[in-house]
Every structure is written in structure tokens, then in C-alpha cells.
Amino acid sequence: MEPSSKKLTGRLMLAVGGAVLGSLQFGYNTGVINAPQKVIEEFYNQTWVHRYGESILPTTLTTLWSLSVAIFSVGGMIGSFSVGLFVNRFGRRNSMLMMNLLAFVSAVLMGFSKLGKSFEMLILGRFIIGVYCGLTTGFVPMYVGEVSPTALRGALGTLHQLGIVVGILIAQVFGLDSIMGNKDLWPLLLSIIFIPALLQCIVLPFCPESPRFLLINRNEENRAKSVLKKLRGTADVTHDLQEMKEESRQMMREKKVTILELFRSPAYRQPILIAVVLQLSQQLSGINAVFYYSTSIFEKAGVQQPVYATIGSGIVNTAFTVVSLFVVERAGRRTLHLIGLAGKSKTVAQIYSDKQQVL
């Protein structure tokens, strides 16, 4: 391993930092809808009364609120399926830059929904920012991984997750009634996403395009070499270029496969199953339900200050993400994931045991 491969240069920090602003957006929009639930539901009721002259039915209100929360994930699913359409045509950096248009449109819709007396604007804004976040979950890890040296790829890759959990925590804090989670400022709470979008639009033009994209997709070796020199802070980038060329040769030798072939072929079956199980183990842990509905859950559980309990969960989430940043290269991805699975299993068993004792 060459010494330069472990060097954290200013250009590399700028590139990673600019990209991770997208991760921050994803986290913020995941957590922001939780705390102001009551004031937004009141806005829905007022809008309904203004239109129809009567209070909204509880079932209709629940449906509208559930749609407001879930539509973000629907948009995210659509966005995640569209990642390849953009990154291979426009590049990683340019794709991130272009998609900020969605964040600006969403900010306008949600920010002016109260003024326009339209909960449809809020729901549409949540859908659009969901599409943006779905795209971001593909763009950011890809870009960070491709600009990072091999020795730092694991640690810098963790910054994507750190950006997400920090964004969630910021949303939870800003959602306090004393800050922006009140009946007057909740539109600003939802539309403040234009600030990180604007920052990313300012920073990304000064960041290089992915050298892997330039070499493999565009066949621009000289430009890729120039970018690598700036990112690594050294004139000798032969090792990195050879690594990417070898990857390119392997890709050319491999035939394109369909989704069904991924599961049928023995060569792909194990990797695809590992990828699916990894994602399922996170999603089925219930973490999204915690971030979307924790304030309501804590309130029903009898917690006196549910918003602060929600912030507490956000702090724990952020703290352990920071821990993983420092131990991921030392302990390994598999070990850390197994520790997490063991912890979740113990928690579920404890909850089940407590419930049985109550019954």
C-alpha cells in the first residue's frame, strides 16, 4: 500500500463533504415529519374546514397524515430505481448537482402550502423530496467510494450514514415547539432544505468528477489521471489507474445479466442474497417507524416529554455511527453487522418477555 493512498487531502475532503450534504438532506427529510405531527394535522383540519365548512373526519385525517409520511418512501423508491439513468450519462458529480432542482421545487411547495391552504402541496413536496433522496442514496456512496483511496474507503464511506443520522438529529432538534415545530414556523421547518441544496450547488462545481467515471465510462484517461493527482496529492497515481483499468477489463469480460439471472446463477446468487439480507435486516429492524412515528409512540407509552425522548434516540443513533466511523476498518463490516443483529435480537426478546409478564 502506497503512503499517498492514506493521505486525506483538502480536495478529497471538499469532494466528500460536498457530496455528504445530500446525505444530510436525506436524514433531515426522514426525521422532520415526526415532531410537528400535531400542528400539521391541525393545518389539515383548518384547510378542510375552509374548503368544506366542517371538521375533517378522524379516519380521513389519519389517511392524509399516513400519506404525507409514506409518500416520501414512495418517491424514494422511484428515485433509487432511476440512479443508473443519471450517473452513467451525466456523471456522479453532475447528477448530484442537477438533482438539487428537485430540492428547491420541494422546498417551495412545502414552504407555501400553509399560505396556499393546500395539503396537496405539502404531500407533493414530500413526494418530490423523496425522489431526490432516493437518487441521493445512490449518488453519494458511489461518488464517495470512487474518489476515496482504497485505505480510506471504508471510513469515508461511513460519512454517508453519518450525514443521514446527523440530518435526522438536526430535524428532531429543529422540530421542537420552541424552535420551528410550532403552528407559525412549521412551513419553514419543512422548507429549510433549500439551504443545504444551495450549499451543495456552490460547493460541487469546485469538486472533481469521479475518476472512475472519466476512465471507464468516458475513456478520458488523461483527465482521470489529473483528477487522481489532485485527490491524492501526489504525482504518482499509477497504482490507482491500474486498479481501475483492471476493473474495466473485468466488466468488459462479464456479460450483462437480468434480475432473474442474479438469483438463478450460482456466481451471483450468494452476493445478491447477502445484499438483500443486509438491506432487510436494517429495514425490518423498525428503524424507519422510529424516525417517522417515535413521538407518537412515546406519547402513547406514557412518556411525559415524547419529543425529547425522540431527540434522545437520535443522539444515540448519531453517537454509534461516529463509533463505527473509527472502528469499521479495524473490526470489519461483517463483525459490526453481526454485533448489531445480536443487539436487535436481544432487544426483541426482552420486549417479548416483558409483554408476556404483563399479560
UniProtKB/TrEMBL annotation:
Which controlled-vocabulary keywords does the entry list? Cell membrane, Membrane, Sugar transport, Transmembrane, Transmembrane helix, Transport
Gene Ontology biological process terms, A to Z: fructose import across plasma membrane
One annotated GO molecular function is: fructose transmembrane transporter activity
User: According to its UniProt record, where is this protein mainly located?
Assistant: membrane
Q: Where are the transmembrane segments?
A: 12-28, 64-87, 99-116, 122-144, 156-174, 186-207, 272-295, 307-328
Could you tell me the superkingdom of the organism this chain comes from? Answer: Eukaryota
Tagged with keyword Membrane: yes
Which range is the signal sequence, renumbered to this chain? none
Q: Record's InterPro entries?
A: GLUT (IPR045263), MFS_dom (IPR020846), MFS_sugar_transport-like (IPR005828), MFS_trans_sf (IPR036259), Sugar/inositol_transpt (IPR003663), Sugar_transporter_CS (IPR005829)
Q: Which reaction does it catalyse?
A: D-fructose(out) = D-fructose(in)
NCBIfam families per the record?
SP
Concerning its family, UniProt says: Belongs to the major facilitator superfamily. Sugar transporter (TC 2.A.1.1) family. Glucose transporter subfamily.
> PANTHER family from the entry?
SOLUTE CARRIER FAMILY 2, SOLUTE CARRIER FAMILY 2, FACILITATED GLUCOSE TRANSPORTER MEMBER 1
What is the recorded name of this protein? Answer: Solute carrier family 2, facilitated glucose transporter member 5
Q: Which species is this record about?
A: Homo sapiens
